[in-house]
Amino acid sequence: MSDSKQGLLGLGSSGPAVADVRARLSALSPAHLPEGVAPAGPGGDEVFDEGLQRAVRAFQQHKGLIVDGVVGVETFSALDGARWNLGDRLLVHTPGHLMRGDDVTALQERLNTLGFSAGRVDGRFGPDTERAVRAFQRAYGLPDDGSVGPATLRAFQDLRRSVSGGSATVLRERERVRRSGHNLSGRTVVLDPGHGGPSTGATGNGLVESEIVMDLARRIEGRLTAIGVSVVFTRTEHTDPSEEERAAIANAAGADVVLSLHCDSHEARDASGVATFFFGRDRKTAWSAVGEQLADLVLREVVARTGLPNCRSHGRSWTLLTHTTMPAVRVEAGYLSHPDDARRLADTAFRDVLAEAVLVSLQRLYLGDDDTATTGVLRLGDLRAYLAAHG
Prior knowledge:
By secondary structure, the protein is α/β, with parallel strands linked by helices. Helices cover 43% and strands 11% of the residues. It has 3 domains: 16-81, no CATH class; 102-164, Muramoyl-pentapeptide Carboxypeptidase, domain 1; 184-389, 3-Layer(aba) Sandwich (Aminopeptidase), CATH 3.40.630.40.
């Protein structure tokens, strides 16, 4: 196999690019990798063998990426960022060319822990991070230039106070939802049907992922607009924005929630069920508590209403989940490669059930402590009656 195929490196690839991946992995701390990962050979030429594949999988697992053992754009970007520790370089905000890396992640975690809100811990030195740095510098009597150099780093070392009672970012996120009220009407929901245009996504049993999830999104849209929710789509039938572009659309819309809709496929014919994903690498700072709550609600409602196998809810650091400033959930609604899952997804009535499950999950998110309903029993009419009574 050549150096890469469409920007991907995997088992059997060869050449300097593979040697570079091996060298980057070998330079990381043992916590990222299993034993037995050797450095690149002296000639720079290298083969992507099973040992390197295991190392890539371990790194992907550690970073909350898709664990496929293939080095694509996101994995290589994470590898590139992993070489930086806080203090290795001067950090500044450069619009259009954001600095990225583990050092930025560590900075954001430190700022959030100290009560200076840097926003989502996404490893990008953006405007929110710069504002938090300036606020920290002013509070500590430093020139508030927004850059992180030796003086600011020394101040971080001197100040070890932590916020008690959990992450300040997580607490603020929960409080925003609590204060926003029970009613879905007036909110903005971004629907992100996966793939689009020339990218069809998964296929199987005569079904195409991009078509199925667009139809599902339209059904969800109809139910949301019926109760006064504004809906924004990240794509049309003919476009396939990047994950960063989809996140930018959601952020520009000032959305309350993002729902990314997908189906899955697998070589194992018995792979079946529904899974949900939210932003989360840990339970400290790199975590959306509200995203996890919504992911769990969607999962439980879908399982209760459809009987699909529960493939559980998982924290990940995928681009769309990381770069959105509001809670975002990705739903994998069945396997097109599984005959029974595919048969049900082909049924428009089944997609209506999925759409109603999503709608009820969103409403239950905002009910908070007043949510006493049994999972799988609320219907659209029940929601309308509740909203009328509490409007």
